[in-house]
Amino acid sequence: MRSLVWPVCRGAPAAYCAYNKQLMDLQAKLDKGTELKNTGNKAFTSNDVKGALTNYHQAIFYLKGTENIQQAMGGVSNEQEDPVKSQMKQVLGTCYSNMAACLLKEEKWPRVIDYCKKALEADPKNKKAHFRIAQAYIRTGKLDLAREELQDLLRSDPDDAGVKRELTLLKEKDKIETSKEKKIYKNMFERMAKQPDN
Questions:
Q1: Are residues 51 and 43 in contact, defined by beta-carbon separation less than 8 angstroms?
Q2: Which candidate among 19, 84, 93, 111 keeps its CA 20 to 30 Å from the CA of 60?
């Protein structure tokens, strides 16, 4: 990966050189985080969920550590910070979303939701994170939240077969929930009808 930062310290003030070194540190961390994410992707495609999770977690460790460096560089101009920072957020969001994909395979729904929320915090446009959180919401009975996510996804891509499949599953779950509610109310009204009036 080509570096986004080119240090030019020869004859420059010391503060400028220190600033460039901090940007290089950010770039090195981004490169390492991206490398670990890619290793995690390879492990995931080989069905090594544990190995994938380990690599994604390590990538997040590298990328999250950059926040302190960015805060320490308080006077950074947006032109110099934005490319690295936005790329870091994107890779961070992808790592969290990929961790959610690993946990989907293990059906650990609450953790899927947690990691998807973190992915969306880092990268709100991450469609895979939106889809995965909708899947987890369906499986945990949070049907209204799932419906919102899936309808938003369907608006952005009306032909997405995965979204349509999950909407079908959502409708089936809705029918089951409605049927259960009807039975509960029916039993409640029958009991009330059997009680004598005072």
A1: yes
A2: 19
